[in-house]
Structures are given as structure tokens and as C-alpha cells.
């Protein structure tokens, strides 16, 4: 009985270490991929990347109408940002 329990614990430990190593590798590879992508293929300038893009009058009217309808006239738009 004791041999079965120690075998189960050793398999548990090896499995948990393997999962942690794979997750660590996913994080590292993801961060390296992000760094390489931002370095070699940056976003073009002037496409609203600085958050200063303007909203057209038609879009603003549609947003205001939707907020008023949804909130019953109690909602107020203070800032529009692209996510």
C-alpha cells in the first residue's frame, strides 16, 4: 500500500512540475513574440494609435442616441476610447 501511495505522489509531483514548466514556456514565448512583433512590424503612424482619433458626427449621434435609449436619458458620455 505504501509503494502505491509513493508512486502516486511521485507521478503527481512530476505532472505538476511539467505543467508549470509548459506554462512558463508559453509565457516566455508569448512575450518574446510580442517584443519581436513590435520591433520588426510596428503599427503605422497616424492611424489613431495615440488615442487622438476623432469620432465623426454621425457616429457620435448614434452613440448618444443608443446611450440615451439604454439608460432612459440618465446616461452621460464623458469619454470615447478605442480598446
Question: Describe it for me?
Answer:
The protein is mainly α and 83 residues long. Helix content is 65%, strand content 0%. It has helices at residues 2-40, 57-71. The mean pLDDT is 87. The chain crosses the membrane at residues 12-36. Keywords: Membrane, Transmembrane, Transmembrane helix. This is Oxaloacetate decarboxylase, gamma subunit. It comes from Tangfeifania diversioriginum.
List the helices and strands and how they pair.
Layout: H1 2-40, H2 57-71
Quick summary:
This protein has about 80 residues and is mainly α.
Give the termini separation: 57 Å
Strand fraction: under 5%
Our count of domains comes out at 2
**Averaged pLDDT:** 87
State Rg.
Answer: 26 Å
SSE run: HH
* Largest beta-sheet details: none
Relative helix content: 55-70%
The helix/strand class is mainly alpha
Spatial shape:
elongated
Give me some keywords for this one.
83 residues, mainly alpha, 2 domains, elongated, membrane, transmembrane helix, transmembrane, Oxaloacetate decarboxylase, gamma subunit
Amino acid at each position: 500500500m505504501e509503494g502505491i501511495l509513493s508512486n502516486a505522489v511521485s507521478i503527481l509531483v512530476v505532472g505538476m512540475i511539467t505543467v508549470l514548466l509548459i506554462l512558463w514556456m508559453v509565457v516566455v514565448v508569448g512575450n518574446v513574440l510580442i517584443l519581436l512583433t513590435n520591433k520588426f512590424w510596428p503599427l503605422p503612424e497616424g492611424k489613431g494609435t495615440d488615442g487622438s482619433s476623432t469620432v465623426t458626427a454621425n457616429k457620435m449621434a448614434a452613440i448618444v442616441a443608443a446611450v440615451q435609449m439604454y439608460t432612459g436619458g440618465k446616461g452621460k458620455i464623458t469619454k470615447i476610447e478605442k480598446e
